[in-house]
Amino acid sequence: MPSHSTRTLIRWDSRTPEKKKYIYEERITLWKAKDADSALKKSEKEAIRYAKESGNKYLGFIQSYWLLDDIEVDGIEVFSLLRESDFSPKKYIDTHFNTGSEKQRQ
Fold first, then answer.
1. Which end of the chain is more exposed for a tag (fewer CB within 10 A), N or C?
2. DSSP H helical ranges for the chain
3. Rounded distance, CA 40 to CA 3, Å?
4. Coil vs helix vs strand at 65
């Protein structure tokens, strides 16, 4: 079955000793899915659950990339980055992920 990676964004409320208003988590997960839309659906469902269980908020931002090689696992997290910011979610996404210069399908 084809494989895809997805990138989602989760907003955390700032925690002591952080200095900024929010912490944003960028997560990349891998999915076995017949197409990008299926991978996006699976990933979004997982991101909503992950955010809810951790007391945070899934921002509704998701991207998918088709992988050339098949994978043996489904839904595994392979990357996570936490970044502090005072930006609102929209400003954060527009600044870091949706600048208008990306070559992507909407």
1. C
2. 36-54, 89-96
3. 11
4. strand
